[in-house]
Design goal:
The complex is a heterodimer. Chain A is mainly alpha-helical. Helices cover about 75% and strands about 0% of the residues of chain A. Chain A is built from eleven helices and two strands. In chain A, helix 3 packs across helix 6. Chain A starts with a helix and ends with a helix. By secondary structure, chain B is an alpha/beta fold. Chain B folds into two domains: about 220 residues, Rossmann fold (3-Layer(aba) Sandwich); about 60 residues, Alpha-Beta Plaits (2-Layer Sandwich). Chain B contains eleven helices and 14 strands. In chain B, the strands form three sheets. In chain B, strands 6-7-8-3-9-10 form a six-stranded mixed sheet, sandwiched between helices. In chain B, a hairpin with a 2-residue loop joins strand 12 and strand 13. Chain B is elongated and about 75 Å long. Chain B starts with 7 loop residues before the first strand and ends in a 6-residue tail after the last helix. Classes of the chains: A mainly alpha, B alpha/beta. At the A-B interface, helix 2 and helix 5 of A face helix 2 and helix 3 of B.
Chain lengths: ~260, ~300
């Protein structure tokens, strides 16, 4: 607990400089960085929306009937929030930490290790916000977003982005080499991607699986994003909001603690 | 603990660093005077880098204290890091940015205004002879250029103390001399320099004082030439293809004799007549009579066994 107090005391606005460094790299490569979040929703919409969706007449969700495309579109935004932040703080942060020794270079300046970790965490969340905003734009052009409720996706992706990028840093802090990321990828991220109410409503799952699904963070994120994108603020949204806020805070604290241990030996 | 009689820039007291059962540094105390160049020598695993990393706030000491210009490394790491410039052992330039951008981004970490950083960066690129590479990608630089850029980057915050961990390892002689010239130039402007090195010639050329470490402890410290004179003497005789009577002859002379593989090392106490004596008694013995160097001191203190 003493360690946690020190971490808290050492956090500072200087972490902005780390965030700014990552942003500068992103802007240097913006042409290649912008393309995936633009093309991703289009691919999903064609493959799942038009392809799979034509086999499925409609989906019953929260007491209403809607087309599969309308149901699925918010799911892919939720998935993008997870992927973009989680990948940033696993593979990309690991490259910066281990191969490029960028953190070592930064630690020779007045920044402390806490500033570096927080900067990375916030940058991961920023990637989620950028991706979800671009995707929202594309889906909006396809008429799949209801405005202005859809704007709620942006604050949501901030909180969910922090949550998933903190999760990524926790994984990074215990990862010895870059190929070890495959393990949490297939045991945690892929199951979440498929079973979190992203491509079908969790209500059609058997009772036990339904209970497990509601423990997964992505289930709450896709639930909230769907409420915003469809413009249906139905159901007990507040519990999902509290869940992601609490998990984002807890994982951030854990990420700071474990990454600090990893970086200072 | 002679330090040119100046106010110390670096003070370390009984520093230790422990990793579980391994004691990397075992109670190291030293001072570095303002404006002094001090070199840390020692075989791999001697604890040099660990010591340097504790001074530059990368690693918290297990016990003991250290301060830079009276600022404690543990209590005020941000202020310490503002006072120092660090050249790490491995180049950690940002491969995502070109040369100039590396310096601009680094300057931001110090909270320096953009214009100040840009002006200093231009000056420093000129200082390390990289002005024409300002917009080159890092991957296109040679090893020597990268090292010079790392040095320029370490100077961006106008540090009072420069900490260089093996600044010239892996460089060709031209690049090495280019770095040495700049380090001497900095000293003449009053910058304190602490460096680690495996090159005895580097230590002799640059350092006012050297500290020899092994096994996490300081074995010896002093001015390079005085150490050589005191520990080894003036002259070393190396001989090969020798017979037993030559060894017996050397044993009759005052001095230290050492046999390493197929080579004989003799450190005579009285070096003035050695050459004449050999010419008379063993004129055809294959041998080399040379001045003693810091390398002889180093090997005497730390042994000839391989470390890794």
């Amino acid at each position: 607990m003493n360690g946690m107090r020190e971490i808290w005391r050492n956090l500072s606005l200087r972490s902005f400089r780390v965030w700014q460094r990552d942003l500068d790299v992103y802007l240097t490569n913006w042409k290649t960085e912008f393309l995936p979040p633009l093309s991703e929703p289009i691919l999903y919409v064609f493959a799942f929306g038009f392809g799979l969706g034509s086999l499925i007449h409609s989906v019953r969700y929260e007491g209403r009937e809607l087309t599969y495309l309308r149901f699925m579109a918010p799911g892919i935004v939720a998935v993008a929030i997870m992927f973009w932040s989680y990948f940033e703080t696993t593979y990309s942060s690991f490259v910066r930490m281990y191969y490029q020794r960028t953190f070592d270079a930064i630690l020779a300046t007045p920044l402390l290790v806490e500033d570096v970790i927080l900067g990375e965490l916030l940058w991961g969340a920023t990637k989620a916000v950028i991706a979800s905003t671009i995707m929202l734009g594309v889906l909006s052009l396809l008429g799949l977003v209801s405005w202005p409720a859809g704007l709620w996706v942006i604050p949501l992706s901030v909180v969910a982005g922090v949550m998933f990028s903190a999760l990524g840093l926790v994984i990074t802090s215990v990862t010895k080499n870059i190929s070890s990321f495959n393990l949490p990828m297939f045991l945690m991220v892929m199951p979440m991607f498929m079973f979190s109410g992203t491509f079908f409503p969790v209500s059609i799952l058997p009772r036990w699986a339904f209970a497990i699904a509601w423990c997964l963070p992505l289930t709450h994120v896709s639930y909230l994003v769907r409420a915003a994108v469809l413009g249906w603020p139905r159901g007990p949204l507040i519990w999902s909001v509290l869940y992601i806020l609490a998990l984002a805070a807890a994982l951030s604290a854990l990420a700071l603690k474990l990454m600090k241990r990893r970086l200072i030996q | 603990m002679a330090s040119r009689g100046l106010k110390p820039a670096i003070v370390a007291r009984e520093l230790t660093k422990r990793y579980g059962d391994l004691e990397a540094v075992r109670g190291v105390s030293f001072e570095v005077g303002t404006g002094e160049i001090v070199g840390f020598l020692g075989p791999n695993g001697a604890g040099k880098t660990t010591t340097v990393r504790m001074l530059s706030c990368f690693l918290p000491p297990t016990t003991g204290t250290a301060s830079i210009h009276d600022v404690d490394v543990r209590e005020r790491p941000r202020d310490v890091k503002r006072l120092i410039g660090v050249c790490p052992q491995e180049d950690n330039l940002d491969p995502d940015f070109h040369v100039m951008k590396n310096l601009l981004v680094y300057g931001r970490y110090f909270g320096l205004p953009h214009r100040v950083v840009r002006d200093r960066a231009l000056e420093l690129l000129a200082f390390v002879a990289l002005s024409d590479k300002a917009h080159a990608p890092i991957a296109s630089l040679s090893g020597g250029m990268k090292r010079r850029l790392v040095l320029a980057r370490a100077l961006l915050n106008e540090p009072r103390v420069l900490i260089l961990d093996e600044p010239t390892t892996g460089l060709d002689p031209q690049a090495r001399h280019a770095i040495w010239t700049r380090i001497r130039n900095l000293r003449s402007h009053g910058t304190t320099v602490l460096l680690t090195t495996h090159y005895m010639e580097e230590a002799t050329q640059l350092c006012d004082r050297v500290v020899v470490m092994d096994g996490g402890r300081i074995l010896l410290e002093g001015a390079p030439l005085e150490l050589v004179e005191h520990e080894v003497g003036r002259t070393v005789v190396e001989a090969w293809n020798y017979a037993e009577d030559f060894v017996s002859f050397l044993r009759t002379l005052p001095g230290r004799l050492e046999e390493v593989g197929d080579r004989l090392y003799f450190y005579p106490e009285e070096s003035d007549h050695v050459e004449r004596l050999f010419d008379q008694r063993f004129p055809r013995q294959e041998r080399l009579i040379r001045r003693a160097t810091l390398e002889d001191v180093f090997l005497k203190l730390t042994g000839r066994a391989l470390r890794e």
